[in-house]
Amino acid sequence: MDKFDKLTAVAAPLPIINIDTDMIIPKDYLKTIKRTGLGTGLFAEMRYNDDGSDNLDFVLNQEAYKNAQILVAGDNFGCGSSREHAPWALLDFGIRCVIATSFADIFYNNCFKNGILPIVVSQEDLDNLMDDASRGANSTITVDLETQEIKGPDGGTIQFEIDAHKKHCMLNGLDDIGLTYEKLDSIDSYENKLEDSRPWV
Length: 201
Known about the structure:
By secondary structure, the chain is α/β, with parallel strands linked by helices.
């Protein structure tokens, strides 16, 4: 998993509440267990017209936001079914951070396991960030995980809270497997002792 320490990128505004995982990646794209290639299906029902052409009214199809790496979204982001394809699709598109007032629990935890930083802010802070994100190509903001700060294009700063363990994992690029490898010496030591004391096992 890629580390996340500081990200300066264009933020795209998505002022919709209750964006569920089916909106993030529709069920038609769930036939694969690969984490790559799902970016094309991200927000497919909003992003494409019935004939398959781009819906130019959708924010991620607009020129200023095609390379956005941050989403500023409405309340209860990631609700619905617990499909892990949702963070996979966001990451494959290039989204590394989602900012909202709240997230569905399973989606929230899945983000950390896949290298996406979900940040919870107050409604007032979200309104300010949504305004920043609405500036098109000038909507660049900086997310600093180490200091737990979001800096807007005008220099304003917002503090955010995050669980210390999750922060450690993101800063060091550790998913569940990576966390296991951190304890490899202890695991090897235990297995060696087990082999000595119970060689028949």
